[in-house]
Amino acid sequence: MAKVGFSDAVLKEVNALFARYPKKVHALLPLLHMAQRENAGWLPRGWEQYVADLCETTLNHVRGVVTFYNMYKTEPVGKYHILVCTCLPCGLCGGTEVLEHLEHRLGISAGKTTEDGLFSLEDAQCLAACDQAPLMLVNENLQKRITLEQIDRWIDEARAKKA
Amino acid sequence: MAQETLLLLKNMRTPGYTGDLSAYQKAGGSKAWEKVLGGMKPAQVIEAVKASALRGRGGAGFPCGMKWSFMPPLGAKPHYLVCNADESEPGTFKDHLLMLADPHQFLEGMMIGCFSMHSHHGYIYIRGESQHAIRRVQGAIDELYKAKLLGRNIRGSGFDLDLTVHPGAGAYICGEETAMLDSLEGKRGQPRSKPPFPAQSGFNACPTTVNNVETLANVPFILTQGPEAFAKLGRPNNTGTQCISISGHVAKPGVYEVEMGHNLKSLIYEYAGGIRGGKKLKAVIPGGASAGILRADEVDLPYDFDSLAKAGTMRGSGAIMVFDEDTDVVRLAERTIRFFNHESCGQCTPCREGTFWVKNMIRQFMDDAGDGVLAERIHRAAGQMIGTTICAFGDAVGGPMQAFVRKFPEEFAKHYAS
Question: Is it the case that residue A102 has pLDDT exceeding 70?
Answer without folding.
Answer: yes
